[in-house]
Amino acid sequence: MSGGIFILSGAGLSAESGLKTFRAEDGLWEDHRVEDVATPEAFARDPELVQRFYNMRRTQAAKAEPNAAHQALARLQAEYDGTVYLVTQNVDDLLERAGAQKVIHMHGALKDAMCAACGHRWPAPMEMHVTDPCPACGTAATRPDIVWFGEIPYHMDAIQTALEDSDLFVAIGTSGVVYPAAGFGQMAQQLGIRTVELNLEASGARFDEVHEGPASRIVPAWVT
Ligand code: BV8
Question: Which residues contact 67 (CB under 8 A, 6 or more apart)?
Fold first, then answer.
């Protein structure tokens, strides 16, 4: 059995499926910086504005199709004779829809809803409103099951274990700006793991190997 392959993906993996990245030239939504909308403070201040932002993202993600990069990663996970850990910062479900069996969504997922009062989770409807009562406790405190800036990412223990089980770390389509995800490459290097970047343009972070180009071309090429 070969060693694990730890694959961290960011918005660049889904860019060619038509889903905007965070730091694209505009990177704004309804004149709001994403960082100003994806926060608990924004939700407390104007919950319907935040719900509208995620309703738009959820609708866009549902209309998007997995691209060749998602498909190549799902194939790798199915065919590799070791474990392929697909750790994603993305909240879309394109890897799952490409056939990936296990995806670690460290920043949550658009397809899930959560109750801010009792923590109950359920499949999110396409359109969510904060007045929607929680199916478990009935409180009108519905929120997207998304990790906002200032909140603790999900599955951090599983991610640490996956890194320690891997002998290759690959970062795909991520600018390496947001922590703790941005620190995983350095953790890999400290563990003596070989690190590879696949990105439209090199992010500038230190990797043993860098491949530049669109994910839909360079990910399938790298996987084969
Ligand atoms: C936490 C869900 C504590 C929401 C997201 C000061 C210094 C350091 C850190 C901080 C600081 N102040 C605050 C912090 C912490 C903060 C942070 O890092 N802030 C940044 C802005 C400095 N982090 C947090 O708050 C995190 N929580 O720290 O808790 C803690 C931590 C650990 C343990 C205990 C406690 C929570 C952060 C999560 C926020 N939620 N997403 C939503 O989606 O709406 S973050 C969101 O932005 C994404 O999930 C992703 O993580 C990030 C965007 O990054 P990318 O995915 O890389 O996208 P980006 O647009 O930046 O880049 C696109 C890339 O794609 C580019 O490289 C481009 O070249 C490439 N590309 C484009 N097209 C293509 C392509 N590549 C290939 N092919 C293409 N076609």
Answer: 14, 16, 17, 94, 215, 216
